[in-house]
Design goal:
CATH class of one domain: Alpha Beta
CATH topology of one domain: Rossmann fold
Order of helices and strands: EEEHEEEHHHEHEEEHH
CATH superfamily of one domain: P-loop containing nucleotide triphosphate hydrolases
CATH architecture of one domain: 3-Layer(aba) Sandwich
Oligomer: single chain
Helix content: 25-40%
Bound molecules: adenosine-5'-triphosphate
Strand order of the largest sheet: 6-7-8-3-9-10
Number of helices: 7
Number of strands: 10
Structural class: alpha/beta
Shape: globular
Radius of gyration: 18 Å
Largest sheet: 6 strands, mixed
Distance between the termini: 37 Å
């Protein structure tokens, strides 16, 4: 049995006639925070969709917690927060979370826990439709945390948040990983890379690097992770 929460081999995906993922392969170790970083349009969302079983794939293998991606047994073991918050505008934050907790058969006590986790206590009784963009995406993140899933797949959860909230969320991700949860978190902001235990650097449908931040610094001779990423891109272009 593998110790990986996610195992991807030879994954190829086409969207709109374009090859969006090209022979992608990597593993995500259990109980870690792995960052999926790369520029807009490089294929991060497509890869996450393949992991949660929401993407038609052309070829390859995606195994999640020992089962094929999308297996019904994974439904309450994997939490997914998309970039477009999937929450109901005409419910309050608490009503919305109570609704999803009942659908997911998560304990009712989870509602207050996840509201505190994403720091929305002050907006608990506010209509979702009246939240700011950043608050709405945190409400969506709270839904993904219900039921304490073993794997969390979070698509750009910190977009639009101020530095303090971003820092709080990264601390939360670290605490969840320490407690045994596996997190795959996408971002196109390279300064978030240093908060991850492992990094998958992606560009144009290819994984350019699969390493720890330290390993990447040593390999490229660049301390700054953005510079390390640029170094990898240029070395590949020159090859
Ligand atoms: N519904 C779609 N139909 C056709 N092509 C699509 C569709 N969605 C995305 N694509 C294409 O797939 C490629 C990868 O998109 P994807 O959303 O996976 O990138 P991303 O790295 O998540 O970008 P971003 O950081 O901007 O969210 C892009 O070239 C995009 O144009």
């Amino acid at each position: 049995m593998t110790n990986s929460a996610v195992l991807v081999r030879g994954l190829r995906v086409r969207r709109g006639g374009l090859e969006v993922l090209r022979e992608v392969g990597f593993e995500v170790p259990r109980g870690s925070v792995t960052g999926l970083l790369g520029p807009s349009g490089c294929g991060k969302t497509t890869l996450m969709r393949a992991i949660v079983g929401a993407q038609i794939v052309e070829a390859g293998e995606v195994t999640v917690l020992g089962l094929p991606a999308g297996d019904p047994k994974l439904r309450d073991r994997v939490g997914y927060a998309t970039q477009n918050p999937a929450v109901y505008a005409d419910l309050t934050v608490a009503e919305c979370l109570r609704y999803f907790a009942s659908v997911l058969k998560a304990p009712a006590s989870d509602v207050d826990r996840v509201i505190a986790d994403v720091d929305l206590g002050g907006q608990k009784n506010q209509l979702v439709g009246k939240l700011s963009g950043g608050q709405r995406s945190r409400a969506s993140l709270a839904v993904a945390l219900l039921g304490e899933p073993e794997l969390l797949v979070l698509d750009e959860p910190t977009v639009g948040l101020d530095p303090v909230l971003r820092d709080d969320l990264w601390s939360l991700f670290g605490r969840l990983a320490l407690a045994g949860t596996t997190l795959l978190v996408s971002s196109h902001v390279m300064d978030e890379a240093a908060r991850c235990e492992r990094l998958l650097l992606m560009r144009e449908g290819i994984i350019l690097a699969d390493d720890t931040p330290e390993g990447l610094r040593v390999d490229t001779g660049k301390h700054d992770l953005e510079q390390a990423f640029l170094h990898l891109v240029r070395s590949r272009e020159a090859a």
